[in-house]
Amino acid sequence: MAEILLGLWDQPPQLLPDAEQQIQENLDGWFRNQSLTRLYELQQRPDATSALQQNAQTEAQQTFLKLTLIGVVPIIGCLAGTAILISLLVQRAFRGEQALLAQNSTATWETPWNWEIVWQVLIAGFFFAGQIVLPLVSQLLGVGFSAFDSRARAAYALTYYLAMAGISLFVLYLSVRDFLPLPKEWFRLKSKSNWLLWGVGGYLVALPLMILVSWANQQIWQGQGGSNPLLQIVLEEGDPVALGMFFATAAIAAPIFEEILFRGFLLPSLTRYLPVGWRSPSAA
Q: Over the stretch 122-141, which tens digit does the pLDDT of each residue have?
């Protein structure tokens, strides 16, 4: 590739026979367009140059549209989420217990276990196994994350997350099996007719809060931490297999595990000690 590029801009130019094919296969974006333009000029192919410029203009328009959507849609969503959040707070202030935020504020779950079981699941199952045991085992086995390519890294991340989730859920089962059969509604998945509305509304309300937290992170910690280095690598390389494994980790395995452990176990367990709504424990 270096010989081809040097030949294109050399004086006099030296064109290799497979220059066009090599440029198409090994260069992208602006670099490919500039190299092909130079090649077609030297080969005196005005039709190819015109077609290349037309394709570049089409790609530029598509890129501009994508950048516009990426920049505008979050702003619109943030404004809509802020409006919804303010309206919910105003409704809560004026309507009290009839407000949407006060729904089920007095409800509690029938929790047969105490705080010791909760700490046992979180500390022994989630934190100890996932943050201490698995990294230590990986280190003892000599498994180096940085030594893998993007596909192997994605597979490693998926395997690691499934192992961490499996151990945590196994500890959860061992912790609650003495209380089986559980009271009604525990670990039940129920769909509602307005689930899509709740999902979109929840996303919009969370968006301005997420931006606020991101801004605070930039101001206090200069944006350090919180990002996934694997995502950047996978996106840059564009490997569909690695993207699929990353998607399975972030969009399938993680939500299922977190729904079971946190929303399925932790939050209902906490209603034994904490109120659901904005009321003091004594009032609840």
A: 998 888 877 788 888 877 87
0.70 surpassed by pTM? no
In a domain, 88, yes or no: no
Return the closest-CA partner of residue 236 out of 29, 4, 10. Answer: 29
Closest residue by Cα to residue 240 from 116, 112, 154: 154
Say if 174 falls within a structural domain. yes
Contact 163, 249 (CB under 8 A): no
CA angle 180, 126, 265 (to 5 degrees): 40
> Is 275 within the bounds of a domain?
no
- What is the rounded CA–CA span in Å between residue 28 and residue 105? 56
**Amino acid identity, residue 250?**
A
Give burial (CB, 10 Å; 0-12/13-18/19+) of 35: buried
Number of structural domains in the chain = 2
Does residue 181 have a cis peptide bond before it, meaning omega lies within 30 degrees of 0? Answer: yes
pLDDT 10s digits, 2-32: 999 999 898 888 888 888 899 988 888 888 8
Q: Are residues 172 and 119 in the same domain?
A: yes
Q: Which domain holds residue 38?
A: 2-70
What is the distance between the alpha carbons of residues 263 and 266, in angstroms, rounded to a whole number? 6
